[in-house]
Design goal:
The relative contact order is 0.16. The protein has six helices and two strands. It has a domain of 140 residues: Hyaluronidase domain-like. The chain starts with 36 loop residues before the first strand and ends in a 43-residue tail after the last helix. Strand 1 and strand 2 form a beta hairpin.
Length: 223
């Protein structure tokens, strides 16, 4: 899965391009800001551990890079601090959707089709929410002021296309479940066990990889 996109950049007030940020460490020191706490998201209290925007952008860059090389566990882990680091509903929906998407394909490696479906449903709901919130904020228009949409703009993802791709994955996993049922698939003797898990202890029974491919991350250049 490649990064996609191309062409000349036009200067903007959004700071450095996402691909120009270092992906091996956070950017800058952790600056003083709001105290950690909880935010209400989708009707539930969730952790809020504030991080400055440059740090969240660097975490996003690392998470997208991990996803695009097929390292879904580390994509999930890199994106989570960025999600917890903002209290903006659109940004949390965007990052939460990417986290759920990565988590779905950790479950694919584990051979857990029910886990794939549950995470894809969560990803679809959150990414569609982000798509709608950002459209309401006129994401596709010129934005004069910095705002919560900046991180999602920097990611340069086409959320309309990504939601459609997740729908295709959901259809594939539903078809798989109809044919094979919800139990983990049998693992061939000697087949390596994935080293990581998103949820559950490492002793969780794992099956063979579910043959459903993760969608590429579609890019959209915003002038």
């Amino acid at each position: 899965m490649g990064a996609g996109g191309g062409g000349d950049r036009t200067p903007s007030d959004l700071g450095p391009a996402l691909e120009d940020l270092p992906v091996d460490r956070p950017v800058g020191p952790l600056l003083a800001g709001p105290a950690p706490g909880r935010v209400v998201e989708r009707g539930r209290a969730k952790a809020y551990r504030p991080l400055p925007e440059p740090v969240r952008l660097a975490a996003l860059a690392r998470g997208l890079s991990a996803y695009e090389r097929g390292d879904f566990y580390h994509a999930h882990e890199e994106l989570e601090p960025a999600w917890m680091g903002t209290d903006d509903p659109a940004e949390r929906a965007f990052l939460g959707g990417l986290i759920k998407l990565a988590g779905a394909f950790v479950h694919a490696e584990r051979g857990n089709p029910v886990g794939i479906r549950m995470n894809l449903v969560g990803a679809r709901d959150r990414l569609a929410d982000a798509r709608d919130r950002l459209a309401d904020a006129s994401l596709d228009a010129s934005i004069a002021d910095r705002g919560p949409a900046d991180l999602a703009r920097a990611a340069d993802l086409d959320l309309v296309a990504l939601v459609a791709a997740v729908d295709d994955c959901l259809e594939a996993v539903r078809s798989y479940l109809a044919l094979h049922g919800p139990a983990p698939t049998s693992r061939t003797a000697g087949e390596p066990v994935p080293a990581h898990d998103v949820v559950g202890p490492r002793t969780t029974v794992r099956g063979a990889r579910v043959p459903i491919e993760a969608p590429a991350l579609p890019r959209k250049r915003l002038g």
